[in-house]
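Example for tutorial group B:
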């Protein structure tokens, strides 16, 4: 038996990512070991990767004496690949969009509603491809595979086309871009130079809508693209399939609704009903309002206070102050919105229908192909039907892939909701109720500069 076997034992962790040497008896005698001999003995015990040379040198320098266990090897963790994503190219006016300094006494509202524009033939977006990742290795030399990034199919938006290499989106018309998650649309714009009034009436437009004034109570603005309001939105209805930008603020008086499939930006919200399919960005205050964001709620640029009402977000709520000294009841909810839970079975049904339709279409197409292989000539109506089947097959395949991607996104959103968090940069005051799924906690004392999250099945408050 090797003398080192009598003195030391190498313990490999369960995950095989760490090897530790432990001394069981004192070494006595004049025998000296070389670094090469010690290294060879370690490798003979199966530890072949991530060996710490300085650790082995420490053992030799201390004449084989150790006072405590010593880590002599550590594995290398794998790095998962990055998901593919769509990167928007710079647009004219893009640098001014959404940039607003609320800390100043005055605000240049023109910078808020500067509308990005693109020209026909311009590249408006590029797909950044997924990466494979870098595999890791444990201390015994076993490869740890990396998870490759997820890919997606780049599809054309409204008035955009996919390039030949399937990596870029090209504008087909002059207009205003509307950025979606995996595509970009280019819409013609509709502008109102002043307040919405009886002369303009309600607006329902297929592109982007810009209102260089206020939207009074009772009016409705609907747009397939983005909605930009330079002034104030009162108890009106704004519905956008893109994003909504409000230069001054939302004063809802408990009526009306501001709803966007993507993000919503506003200086303040007072007694408003707001729903964002993406993130909600509020620069000053959210007061006595009902707000929901499938993504996150940000209220930490200016005064950054949230008082009263109910706010819910899929992943995070961040503010400077939540509640007030009057202990106004305020509720924050973190987790998946009920609409997502309802949409999952609907999307699964859409996916099932697409798969069933694909099977039927392929059988029909196969029947035509078989007839031609047998030397039979298709009739005129059969040739037309075959062409229609081919086109329908392509469209149905796209529906199937879209449903699969949507299910994947919703599943990821549900998974992320378990790691939701509330961040309060200044004060979290009493009578604020925090709800994380089935867990609920009511704040009874003031906290400063804290974050709130679920830790070990319990809502815990800790310093930021």
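The residue assignment follows.
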């Amino acid at each position: 038996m090797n003398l080192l076997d009598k003195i030391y034992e190498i313990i490999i962790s369960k995950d095989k990512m760490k090897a530790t040497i432990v001394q069981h008896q004192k070494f006595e005698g004049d025998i000296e070991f070389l670094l090469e001999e010690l290294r060879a003995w370690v490798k003979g015990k199966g530890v072949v990767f991530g060996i710490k040379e300085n650790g082995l040198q420490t053992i030799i320098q201390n004449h084989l004496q150790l006072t405590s266990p010593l880590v002599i090897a550590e594995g290398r963790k794998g790095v998962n690949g990055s998901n593919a994503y769509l990167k928007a190219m710079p647009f004219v006016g893009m640098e001014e969009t959404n940039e607003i300094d609320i800390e100043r006494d005055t605000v240049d509202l023109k910078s808020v509603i500067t509308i990005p524009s693109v020209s026909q033939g311009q590249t408006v977006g590029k797909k950044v491809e997924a990466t494979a990742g870098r595999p890791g290795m444990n201390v015994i030399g076993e490869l740890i595979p990396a998870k490759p990034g997820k890919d997606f199919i780049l599809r054309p938006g409204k008035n955009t086309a996919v390039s030949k290499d399937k990596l870029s989106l090209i504008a087909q018309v002059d207009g205003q871009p509307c950025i979606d998650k995996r595509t970009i649309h280019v819409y013609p714009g509709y502008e109102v130079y002043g307040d919405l009034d009886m002369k303009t009436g309600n607006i329902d437009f297929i592109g982007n809508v810009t209102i260089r004034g206020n939207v009074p109570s009772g009016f409705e603005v609907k747009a397939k693209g983005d909605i930009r309001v330079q002034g104030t939105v009162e108890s009106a209805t704004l519905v956008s399939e893109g994003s909504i930008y409000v230069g001054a603020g939302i004063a809802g008086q408990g009526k009306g609704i501001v709803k966007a499939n993507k993000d919503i930006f506003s200086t303040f919200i007072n007694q408003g009903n707001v729903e964002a399919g993406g993130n909600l960005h509020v620069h000053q205050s959210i007061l006595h309002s009902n707000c929901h964001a499938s993504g996150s709620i940000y209220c930490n640029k200016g005064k950054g206070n949230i008082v009263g009402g109910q706010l819910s977000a899929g992943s995070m709520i961040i503010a400077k102050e939540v509640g007030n000294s009057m202990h106004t009841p305020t509720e924050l909810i973190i987790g998946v919105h009920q609409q997502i839970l309802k949409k999952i079975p609907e999307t699964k049904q859409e996916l099932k229908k697409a798969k069933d339709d694909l099977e039927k279409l392929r059988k029909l197409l196969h029947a035509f192909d078989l007839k031609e292989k047998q030397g039979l000539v298709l009739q005129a109506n059969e040739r037309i039907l075959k062409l229609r089947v081919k086109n329908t097959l392509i469209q149905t395949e796209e529906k199937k892939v879209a449903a699969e991607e949507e299910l994947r996104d919703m599943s990821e959103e549900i998974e992320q909701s378990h790691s939701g968090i509330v961040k309060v940069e200044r004060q979290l005051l009493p009578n604020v109720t925090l709800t994380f799924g089935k867990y609920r906690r009511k704040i009874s004392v003031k906290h400063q500069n804290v974050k709130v999250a679920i830790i070990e099945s319990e809502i815990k408050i800790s310093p930021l």
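Residues 84 and 152 are 7 Å apart (CA to CA). Compare this with the pattern of hydrophobic and polar residues in the output above.
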